[in-house]
Amino acid sequence: MSLRLQARNLACERDDRWLFRGLDLDIRAGEIVRVEGPNGSGKTTLLKILSGQLADYEGELSWGGRPMREARESFLANLLYLGHSPGVKAALTPLENLAWYQALAGQPGGEAARFAALEEVGLAGFEDVPAAQLSAGQQRRVALARLALTPRLLWVLDEPFTAIDRDGVAALEQRLVGHARAGGGVLVTTHHGLTPCAELRRIRLGGGAHDGGI
Amino acid sequence: MWAFINKLRSPKWFYTLSARLQPWFWAAALILIVTGTIWGLAFAPADYQQGDSFRIIYVHVPAAFLAQSIFVSLAVTGLVFMVWKIKIADMAATVMAPLGAAMTFIALFSGAVWGVPTWGTWWMWDARLTSMLILLFLYLGVIALRGAFASRDSASRAASVLAMVGVINIPIIKYSVDWWYTLHQPATFTITGRAAMPAEMWLPLLIMVLGFYSFFIALTLMRTRSEILRRESNKRWVRELAEEAH
Amino acid sequence: MAASEGALPKEVAVVHEEPRGGLAVAVWATLKRDLVLLLRRRSEVLNPLVFFAIVITLFPIGISPDPALLAAIAPGLLWVAALLAALLSLDSLFRADYDDGSLEQLLLTPQPLALLALAKVAVHWLLTGLPLALMAPVLGIMLALPAGSYLVLAVSLALGSASLSLIGAIGAALTVGLARGGVLLSLLVLPLYIPVLIFGAGAVQAAIFGDGVLAHLAILGALLALALILAPLAIAASLRISING
């Protein structure tokens, strides 16, 4: 079995307003799917639905061919979601932050893995500095270190480039492409223009329903 | 069962059905309450201890019954809304909560008025009145929570959870208040002490209780209908309805 | 790009089974993390205790310094003041996690959210309810609490405050998404606290009058057992609602 997240005829109504409806979507191994749309078009809501956080939708959602409601546990075990807020505790050091995430992911936590992950996002030397003393971009990098720390098949990233400097953006883009090439899947929203590549596909929200067509 | 649940999903179906049911409940409420009031106030015998002041039970007891039943209904509609995502249930819960709070207030107020001839004071920490007061706070909590959310969907869910938590707690609160009361006030006179009541006293009471329930159902149907129109105002069937009316 | 391709992860593959035993690790890590967080912001641990002491000071000043009068109302005063102090710290139980996004991550673990939330509540009790219970006898002396009821005071508070933390956490979870949830939280939670207050203060009074202590404590224990079973589910459901507020 390889990665396959499917949505059929997906619709979401929030407070009597359709954010989107009739949305068909397929995410397979080796793909980077970028969700586009103006502010308020429901990008974040779509990502929350597709990452299993919001059960408040109509339509079918399936993971590996099984309905999401049945496959939820296996889905969550393969998912890495990074939201708007980095989820980094200011009072803890980057190492401590990652240790908690490691434990939540059920990984037998090795400190070496944490050091390596932090080095990969350019935080070598900051491992023991309380996150409160780091810049916004550095805090975001702590969150991004989880991409390397926790090997998960499907990445769902909501505005991951926020507050990241230019070098960091380039490295993250490469990381996304690398993940797709290694057989993973990426679902991403960003205001930042992604460099076009073979793996990239776009879905547009807002201004009526659109097919995610391949 | 499933067919019924699926029908409940359609606000339009409920709107048509409730239009047919509503007049019956209004009529029942009117007849029962008028009969009960006249019977209770004019024909039922006076209490041998309290005299005529006992007659306030014809308002106090039905209001207190209803106050508790409505909270249970809030929890049931909350559960139905959470499990089956039936919006009608939530609309009903929205309109029932203030009604329940009003009934609780009526029960409290009539209890206080009753206290004047009975205890010589407007307020006693009587077990029933204390439980009623706590129930009023529970109602106010549900109403305040619903009002605090910007998103109505979240507000509905949060209010449903709180109503369910509350309904589990109501019996616990009731028992603990009774326990507390017996510890602190060794057997003074309680206003609704269950001395055997003769039939000519409890029959009008029963009629009043039924009348209050009919009134509650009729009012809930009516207010749910306007809530449906308010929430579904952008749906086609409501617009067609509005055009017909013009 | 070439530079990083060497460092690419190996093929990623679908994980079929959740690693078993992960739950204990996750719960333990959450306990440890919350303990560390609270101990680093010590004022948050101390504030409820100071509040408790100040409120108790207000009563003799506001009512009368007469020891006989104070002794009569001491059990109730101590219990009410401790209850309010515990309530004070509840608002921050999930708020920090909500603000920085880690609550969202907590909801996305394959582990049962109810148990992870229970770990957080346990930390809250350990650093709020338990210290309040240990401190209460000292304040009892100041209120001329009759001898022989001090141990019962501490035990009833330790037992009862655990229920208070659990019930209060439901309110905290329901209001965490609201900008100013603090007062609302008290409104939601205080009516639900009444049974605990009745049996908690009742236990102390029973100790003074010399009978029925065990019955009161047993009922407090039963309330705690019920809260332990039901509250985590309500907390989890409420957190899921709030995260989408």
TrEMBL record, chain A:
It comes from the Bacteria. Keywords: ATP-binding, Cytochrome c-type biogenesis, Membrane, Nucleotide-binding, Translocase, Transport. It holds the Pfam family ABC_tran. InterPro entries: AAA+_ATPase, ABC_transporter-like_ATP-bd, ABC_transporter-like_CS, ABC_transptr_haem_export_CcmA, P-loop_NTPase. Residues 5-214 form the ABC transporter domain. This is Cytochrome c biogenesis heme-transporting ATPase CcmA. It comes from Billgrantia zhangzhouensis.
From TrEMBL, chain B:
InterPro entries: Cyt_c_assembly (IPR002541), Cyt_c_biogenesis_CcmC (IPR003557), Cyt_c_biogenesis_CcsA/CcmC (IPR045062). It holds the Pfam family Cytochrom_C_asm. Its main location: membrane. Residues 13-184 form the Cytochrome c assembly protein domain. The keyword Cell membrane applies. Belongs to the CcmC/CycZ/HelC family. This is Heme exporter protein C.
UniProtKB/TrEMBL annotation, chain C:
Signal peptide: none annotated. Keywords: Cell inner membrane, Cell membrane, Cytochrome c-type biogenesis, Membrane, Transmembrane, Transmembrane helix, Transport. It is a multi-pass membrane protein. It is found in: Cell inner membrane. The chain crosses the membrane at residues 45-63, 69-94, 115-144, 150-176, 183-208, 214-239. InterPro entries: Cyt_c_biogenesis_CcmB (IPR003544), Cyt_c_CcmB_bac (IPR026031). Belongs to the CcmB/CycW/HelB family. Required for the export of heme to the periplasm for the biogenesis of c-type cytochromes. This is Heme exporter protein B. It comes from Billgrantia zhangzhouensis.
